[in-house]
């Protein structure tokens, strides 16, 4: 478990900004001491955080935010609209023909909308899907490089759908110029992509920036960018706007450096740090794609996230969603909301119906938390150094409720005597789609979850079952329909008992592959 | 002379549009961008470099169009 002392000390040592940041930072530092105030004994808050782990103001802001809380991701949906495709910097992992790789996936194209079309789309989606609680303006491009369109969209939505939370993602170069305006529009989350604080590292990631009507290159460009990013972050913190930092992990270029980045952003009040794997394929035509720069493996990514976790909350559930995807976990409904269809839709925005839905969800979420707490009691007093990963097939609701063959992603939990902790996702291709005779699909599933000891599913066929066993992954279907964390803890308790009784021997599993293909597919 | 946009290279990212001091750049029906030679002043008198050239992520996309006489600042 983390200690409050640690965080507080690290927090104040790193603070060199204005005095009024201190208070906010203090608050942020305190909430990092998860489990101490709420007494829940959880090892981390961040993505798995519950009400007791965060100060109420921050919890209120993030609890229904699917991009901030894995658990909220089960119940709430977010959508992004692309209204401002211009960009003022060049990243080596980006090709402007496609989405902004900072916030979504390269290699996919989002529909470009006018602010009016975007506002209508948001209303149409929110009226059809009561779970839709968050609107983000992200790539392609940098929303703050084209501020008029971005702010116009926010203005239209704030007027017609006041219960929708607004957020914006930016590369940070223009951020200091717009913080004031962001605070006026009541935008409570900003995501800044920060990949370096050392301009030498930055020069390898950014060939140029466009600033003050001039193009800068190399180290000089990276220096301006990092100064502006950190300044923007400090300004957000001073105004009490939550900021999340995205970083793209690029092996050999910024992987170790991201630990420094993590410290720098934490000391300036960032609320969450999301380290994402580089996605790069030659066919995207990005510089990194063409030079053969590889992305990290699952183990490298997790090791870095673990290393940073002592410093601050790590976000582990980012799916690098396609920017204009609409919907809940694993279910993209954007085809229902194309521009043509929206423009014809009669929109009836029913605030009360949305509220009623959200209240029902809150009840269900409390049940999940209660079930987990109960099961955690049974682990009390158990001590073991054993840690293991499990993969879970789920459609949402915090339950083990997906057929192995229907899963397009698995949620990964790390089990230890302090409980079950969500650590990430693995996307896979559909195993059981059948028809295209792709013999090796099961092989790719296994490679994607190869570091897991078990896979929890609602149902599984005999054939994949045997292959999984051969690969040393235990197929578990006995918890079908039950709560994930509760089931995982029960499984882990039995596992420990068997190890103690000498029935099984605990082996450490190997590394797994991050499935680039599955990340890129629309 | 005025600047022009090479259609094959343009990605339609629209970065150039808001930067032009003369509103000479607009979106064409194909989603790509075009420069109105009658409005383009090569940024003379506004900036040291043509802004469309400076911000365009693709090299050799905003280039000089020799079909027009050299712009002379008033
Ligand atoms: S900030 Fe986004 S759109 Fe701009 S170059 Fe980087 S990845 Fe591409
Ligand atoms: S050169 Fe300057 S004036 Fe001409 S189109 Fe480009 S930005 Fe506009
Ligand atoms: S900046 Fe370049 S690529 Fe982007 S729209 Fe203008 S000409 Fe096209």
TrEMBL record, chain B:
Electron transport found in the keyword field? yes
Provide this UniProt record's keywords sorted from A to Z. 4Fe-4S, Electron transport, Iron, Iron-sulfur, Metal-binding, Transport
Under Gene Ontology molecular function, one entry of this record is:
4 iron, 4 sulfur cluster binding
Q: Which domain of life is it from?
A: Bacteria
Q: Where is the 4Fe-4S ferredoxin-type domain?
A: 1-30, 31-66
Q: Which cofactor does it need?
A: [4Fe-4S] cluster
* One Pfam family of this chain: Fer4
Q: What is this protein called?
A: Ferredoxin
- The protein's organism comes out as Methylococcus geothermalis
